[in-house]
Amino acid sequence: MVLFMAERVLMKGNEALAEAAIRAGCRNFFGYPITPQTELAAYMAKRMPKIGGTYLQAESELAAINMVLGAASAGVRAMTSSSSPGVSLKTEGISYMAGSDLPALIINVQRGGPGLGGIQPSQSDYWQATRAPGHGDLHILVFAPSSVQEMVDLVSKAYDLADNYRMPAMILADGMLGQMMEPVVLSEESDKPLPKKEWAACGHNNERKHNIINSLYLTATELERLVKERFERYAIIEEKEPMFENYCTEDAEYIVVAYGATSRIAKAAVKEARKDGIKVGLIRPITLWPFPKKAMAAAAENAKAFLCVEMSMGQMIDDVKLAINCKCPVNFFGHTGGVIPTPVEVLEEIKKMAKA
Q1: Are strands 330-334 and 305-310 parallel, antiparallel or unpaired?
Q2: What does the pLDDT look like over 183-230, one tens digit per residue?
Q3: pLDDT (tens digit, 9 = 90+) per residue, 228-272?
Q4: CA-closest candidate to residue 215, choices 196, 235, 230, 193
Q5: CB atoms within 10 A of CB 264
Q6: Longest dimension (CA), the chain
Q7: Domain 7-190+215-240: which CATH number of 3.40.50.970, 3.90.1150.10, 3.40.50.300, 3.40.718.10
């Protein structure tokens, strides 16, 4: 691998995602342009030829995800990126990868929907990412960064966990983060080789058994056995891998839950509410799957109420209710369609919750 020195640079979120993937060992990108993530693909188109990588603009989103499946089958780190309508088209291929136990990275820079919707920021793909990223009994790893720096950091984490657990991973960003420019520290790329994948279909020279990558099992009992084995792995992930941030939750009587770009807005409101004497804190899920259930349950021991703040119609609410076993009320405030909540609006909702 080429060695990059750690440096602090000003980058747009989409471009930072691309550079982070390169430094994490990605040399195979397959995509299709769609706003608001097109800069990511454009950056890959410039960089990949210079480092001996492969960039291919596919004829469709369906073609792109199946190219990722093929590259992942060979054991290399591959990636695709899109935005909400494009990711919907990729879900069949994501299911095939989950059914083949293939690690890969999918970037979703969300926009408003449903349908073609708009090109403004949204978080209305939460259900798709955490509940139905494809047909069948499956999960994928889902990471929700809240800054350009965190997008950079989570790319490497996503690849490592995807390789470790042999499953697809998704960075669930949004148009605000993708278009935002912030200073980021780009880590050194190690010359340490990537994990060897004994299962890969990359030639064997009679040194190991012949590997076959497959998601089709016509014997029902065999398919059931494989799915159950996969869910045993999912249970380990749910126990070991949840990521979250607690902010001012130590003495909090009220808990705001927000993720991604919306959590930045929510944190500003929490700070102002604290100045007004309201004991409120913020839990920010960093992994949406696995969801940080234990963190929510712990906060619910002393909390009087929760408030979910989202750029959707409240897709995360049920996960919060389940995590706290409905011990206290879970309220909702949000906008959808590309409208972004403001700190003033969230502060007003916190005050309403505290007066209830």
Answers
A1: parallel
A2: 999 987 656 678 889 999 988 777 778 899 999 999 999 999 999 999
A3: 999 999 999 999 999 999 999 999 999 999 999 999 999 999 999
A4: 230
A5: 16
A6: 72
A7: 3.40.50.970
